[in-house]
Automatic annotation (TrEMBL):
InterPro entries: Adenylation_DNA_ligase_IV, DNA_ligase_ATP-dep, DNA_ligase_ATP-dep_cent, DNA_ligase_ATP-dep_N, DNA_ligase_N_sf, LIG4. It comes from Paramuricea clavata (Red gorgonian). It catalyses: ATP + (deoxyribonucleotide)n-3'-hydroxyl + 5'-phospho-(deoxyribonucleotide)m = (deoxyribonucleotide)n+m + AMP + diphosphate. GO terms for cellular component: DNA ligase IV complex; DNA-dependent protein kinase-DNA ligase 4 complex. GO terms for biological process: DNA biosynthetic process; DNA recombination; double-strand break repair via nonhomologous end joining; nucleotide-excision repair, DNA gap filling. The keyword Calcium does not apply. This is DNA ligase (ATP). The keyword Ribonucleoprotein does not apply. It holds the Pfam family DNA_ligase_A_N.
Amino acid sequence: MATDRGAKTVASQVPFHDICSLLEKIHSNKGTDKKKGILRSFTGSWRETHNKIHGDAKTDDSFFPAMRLLLPQFDKERPAYGMKEAALARHYIEILSIGKDSLDAKKLLNYKAPTHALKDAGDFAMVAYFVLKNRCPEKGSLTIKQVNDLLDKVAMGNMEHKKADTRSALQILLRNTSAVEQKWLIRMIMKELKVGISDKSIFDVYHPDAMDVFNVCSILSKVCQDLKDPTVRKNDSEITLFSAFKPMLGQRAAIDEVEKLMNEQEFIIETKLDGERFMLHKQDNMFKYFSRGSNEYTTTFGSSPNEGFLTPFIANCFSSKVKSCILDGEMMAFNASNEIKFVSKGANIDFKSEKTYSGDSGLHPCFVVFDVLLVNGKSIASLSLKERLANLE
């Protein structure tokens, strides 16, 4: 089923220019239905190309290369780029040999200044577009696959602290994309497209179950692979051990509305804790920790009873009957020497960082569990909270 790296894929045939033109059209048109219609035409064309290339053959080629560019903020499979607007501006100035004291260099570095950027102040991508307009080719020559490969190199250069590799990849991107393509590429790198269409709308256009599946697995490639056919519904969206997923969130309501909202049924009141929402996945002596945003922080808290700032202290707290489970709760910082035991986020504490618990800080992580979603390989997420809490006890 695997696709050979050298094999023909849809992403290797579709120009990056096409996805940028798509974003231009979505941005310039008004109304959600109109925007969704434009996107639907693009996904339909992608599926047609997929059928021409692969027919009925099983393949892992999917819409993922495009989806990760349309929803860059949800792409957890590529390492962080490690740069914001100012860092990218410095790269561009150096690559293009723009004089550091020139007006264009100042526009890039001081992109928020209205005197330099006029109505586009604060929008680095737009400021860069005007600076690059006479420095880039009129139309780019890269495919979506080539752009993704180069973005991988940018990210790997950051992760491995190889600045030259990052610079080299950015240089190829600059030399082979138009100013318009650069505008959208910058927004992809910054993970904020600003096209006036919601994440849910993009998921819904791709497949009616895409949002639900993503909320369960938090993996864009899996969503695209499992939901290739929009006419086939996905009915088995179950949470999976050691795979991050979006936790259920509370609805904001005035206290005097609660009884009315609950229709006079029995309900449970819990203390709101000022920590970080976390999921703990456990199977035997293997542990993983995921934040509300589906980022993994196992290195901080420990993958086994022999390591980390938390797992060694809680590994023996589980019943011997529990072989595997997923717990939902709040990660707090505990200070045994302080009269106020729990430290709040207002104290400017990062509950996820190893630095918080290192040295002589006196702080220890404390995981306050308020829900259980899986026990011994069986999902109990569909049970009522009251029934789930009975399992927790």
